[in-house]
Specification:
By secondary structure, the chain is of the alpha+beta class. The chain contains one helix and four strands. It has a single domain, classed as Transcriptional Co-activator pc4, Chain A (Roll), CATH 2.30.31. A hairpin with a 6-residue loop joins strand 2 and strand 3.
Amino acid sequence: MPAARPLPRTGSIYLDARGDERALRVSWHPEAAEGVVVLSLWQGNVCTGTFRLPVDDVPDLVDTLVDVLRDQHRRGMSPRPALSDAG
């Protein structure tokens, strides 16, 4: 089994709205040949799944998230602040 690697400095941690120590970690890995952003799902200190998003697809993901925020704003809802990795 490969050794766990620490979260890179270029990343963030977002807590799941359901609690229960669930989190999404987002990390950028420029050292990967194709350049990827890794989205990983965590339960406590155990990684339960990962998704490798090619860097070229990140703008589309960001556009989707911005559209959600705009929709919330139009409805008069304020987004919850994220817990960013200060590391």
